[in-house]
Automatic annotation (TrEMBL):
One Gene Ontology molecular-function label: fucosyltransferase activity
UniProt keywords, alphabetically: Glycoprotein, Glycosyltransferase, Golgi apparatus, Membrane, Signal-anchor, Transferase, Transmembrane, Transmembrane helix
Compartment(s) of residence: Golgi apparatus, Golgi stack membrane
Any one cellular-component term (Gene Ontology): Golgi cisterna membrane
Family classification: Belongs to the glycosyltransferase 10 family.
Organism: Daphnia galeata
Transmembrane portions of the chain: 12-32
Name of the protein described by the UniProt record: Fucosyltransferase
Amino acid sequence: MNRLSANKVVRWLVTGFIGALLVACYQLSGYLDQQLLNYKHFFYSQATFYRNSLSPSSCEAQNDKKFIILYWTKYYDYSKDFGNAGLGGKPFSHCGDNSGCLTTTDRGLLNDSDAVVFHARSINLSDLPQPGWRRPHQHFIFFEIESPAHVYKFQDLLFRNYFNRTMTYRRDSDVVYLETHGRVRCINSSTSCLDFPLASKSNIQNVFDPTDHFPINLTLKNQTAAWFVSNCHSDGVGGSRREFLVRNLSQFIPVDIYGGCATEESKKCPNRPVCNPMLSQYYRFYFCFENSLCPDYVTEKCYRPLAYDTVPVVYGGSDYSLYFPAGSYINAMDFDSPESLANYLKKLMTDDELYLSYFRWRRKYVVDLAPKDSWCQLCQMLRDPETKDKTYDIASWWSGETINQTCSLSPPKSLVFT
Ligand SMILES: *[C@@H]1O[C@H](CO)[C@@H](O)[C@H](O)[C@H]1NC(C)=O
Ligand SMILES: *[C@@H]1O[C@H](CO)[C@@H](O)[C@H](O)[C@H]1NC(C)=O
Ligand SMILES: *[C@@H]1O[C@H](CO)[C@@H](O)[C@H](O)[C@H]1NC(C)=O
Ligand SMILES: *[C@@H]1O[C@H](CO)[C@@H](O)[C@H](O)[C@H]1NC(C)=O
Ligand SMILES: *[C@@H]1O[C@H](CO)[C@@H](O)[C@H](O)[C@H]1NC(C)=O
Ligand SMILES: *[C@@H]1O[C@H](CO)[C@@H](O)[C@H](O)[C@H]1NC(C)=O
Ligand SMILES: *[C@@H]1O[C@H](CO)[C@@H](O)[C@H](O)[C@H]1NC(C)=O
Ligand SMILES: *[C@@H]1O[C@H](CO)[C@@H](O)[C@H](O)[C@H]1NC(C)=O
C-alpha cells in the first residue's frame, strides 16, 4: 500500500467518524425513532462515549429523559403502528416543546416503558404482560374509540385494578381522544369562545347575530336527506335501532342511502372524499344516527356534514349541546314522533331563511375532523411530576355503574317502532 492510498484511508476513516458523530448527535437530540428504540442499548453506550468526547452544549438535548409508550395490543387486526398514530416520535412531532416521548411496539422494552397502551377491543386475555414484571411507576392505559355497547369484556376480575388511566372519546377520560371522531374549534380562541366538546353546560355562550346570512349556495340544494351507513343493522343488544327510525322517516320524506348499505351501485360511494362535494351541493340534511345510545358517543359522521355545508340530524345518547354550537344541528330526540321530525325537515326544504340560520355558527367556529392533541396530552401527563397514581375498576367505569355513564339500552318508544 503506498502513502497516497494510506492517506485516503485515514481521511475516509476520519470523515466517517465525524459523520457518525453528527448522525448520532442529531438522532439523540430529538428525532429518536423506532430504530433507535430497537438499538437502545447500543445507543446508550454510544451516548456515554459522545458525552465525554463532545463539548456539553453541542448535544444538550440528549440528556432529556425520553418517556417510552409501548403499544401492547394491535389496533384492531390490521395495523402495526396503532392506526395512524405512528411509531417513535411521530405521534408527538406537532406537540412543540420537544415533547420527550416515543412510541414502540417492541415488547422487549416493557420494563423500560412508562406507559403501556391497550386497545380495549383488541385485548387478548391470554396475551397480557407478565404480572410480575409490572413497574409501580408504569401507567397501564385503557384505550377505546367505540362505545361500551360493543366493547364489554372487562368483567374479568383480573381487570379490577388493572388500568391506571383511560384514553377514550368520553369527556371524563384522563386523556380525551377525539382523533377518529372530530371536534368543533373556535376560529379565534379567546375567553368568549370555547372549543367543543365543552367540559360542562355552564360554559356555554353561543349568541349569534339573528340577522346574519351565512352564504351557502342553495341553487342546487333541493335533495332532502342523505344517510351514509356501512353497518346496516344496529338491532343487536345495546343497538340504537336507527334503521327503524330511518325506515319510518322515509315514509314522509325522501332519504337517500349511501355507503355499504346502499342498494344502488352508484350510491355505494367507496371513496368518501369524492362524495363530500355532492353532499355539500345537493343535500340539506345528513343523518348522524349512532349505532348505540351512549353518553359522549358522537362519531365522525356528525362532523362530516358540519364540514360540508349540510345540517346534521342527530340521534344518539349524548348531550349534543356540549358537542356542537346551538343552532348548528337538529336533534331527533327533541321530536315526539318520526312524523313531526319529518314535517320540520320539510319546512326547512322550503323556508330558506330558516335553513340558512343553521350556519351562523360558522362565523365563530371551524370543524377539526382529526384533532391531534391527545397524544401530546398523554405525553404531558407522563412527564408531569405532579401526576398522581390512580387505579380504575374499569368494568364499572366503562359500563357506568359508578358515574351514570350507562348507555340507554332501549331506544325511545316515541321514535322507534319495531
Ligand atoms: C423484565 O424484568 C424482569 C425482572 O423484574 C425480568 O425477569 C425480565 O426478563 C425483564 N423482561 C424484559 C423483556 O427485559
Ligand atoms: C391470544 O393469545 C394466545 C397466546 O399468545 C394465542 O395463542 C391466541 O391465538 C390469541 N388469540 C387471538 C384471538 O388472537
Ligand atoms: C350557485 O350555484 C349555481 C349552480 O352551481 C351557480 O350557477 C351560481 O353561480 C352559484 N351562485 C353563487 C352566488 O355562487
Ligand atoms: C332539483 O333541482 C334540479 C335542477 O334544478 C332538478 O332537475 C331536480 O328535479 C330537482 N329535484 C327535486 C327533488 O326537486
Ligand atoms: C312511523 O311513525 C309513526 C309516528 O310518527 C307511527 O304512528 C307509525 O306506526 C310508524 N310506522 C312504522 C312503519 O314504523
Ligand atoms: C379573528 O382575529 C383576527 C385578527 O385579530 C380578526 O381579523 C378576525 O376578524 C377574527 N375572526 C373572528 C371570526 O372573530
Ligand atoms: C397502576 O396500578 C397498579 C395496580 O393497581 C398500581 O400498583 C400502580 O401503583 C399504579 N401506577 C400508577 C402510576 O398509577
Ligand atoms: C346517578 O343516577 C342516579 C339515579 O338515576 C342518581 O340518584 C345519582 O345521584 C346519580 N349519580 C351521579 C354521580 O350522578
